[in-house]
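Q: I'm building a small set of examples for a reading group on sequence design. Run inverse folding on the following structure and report the sequence directly after it, with nothing in between.
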């Protein structure tokens, strides 16, 4: 399975190029940086941040510094790392393409409710394989 820093981490979205068309689950599933038209839509520390704790994500502290993308059959989080390249800590739906993270993965969406000042959680499904 994944090493400890990769068992639970947090993706915080800063912007959406087209908010009505942003697909959070699809982005995790295929882990792309560019859309079909070549537009940048998912770049670390521009469109999103990665964090080791929910507290860091909520306070925008200790952002991870590196990500790469756009590899067929490789999902979230490809070779991203706190300070640089870290291989084989990603998910994939393709059984033949699985590295060390071969356990099912779950993606949740956390949204801040400004009216109540709470954090709501919505499970968007199982992104891994069995």
């Amino acid at each position: 399975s994944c090493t400890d820093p990769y068992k639970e981490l947090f993706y915080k979205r800063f912007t959406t190029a087209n908010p009505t068309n942003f697909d959070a689950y699809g982005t995790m599933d295929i882990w792309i940086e560019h859309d079909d038209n070549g537009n940048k839509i998912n770049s670390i520390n521009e469109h999103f941040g990665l964090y080791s704790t929910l507290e860091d994500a909520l306070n925008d502290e200790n952002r991870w510094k590196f990500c790469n993308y756009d590899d067929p059959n490789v999902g979230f989080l490809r070779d991203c790392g706190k300070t640089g390249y870290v291989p084989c800590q990603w998910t994939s739906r393709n059984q033949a393409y699985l590295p060390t993270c071969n356990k099912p993965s779950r993606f949740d969406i956390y949204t801040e409710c400004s009216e109540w000042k709470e954090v709501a959680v919505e499970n968007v499904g199982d992104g891994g394989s069995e």
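The radius of gyration is 14 Å.
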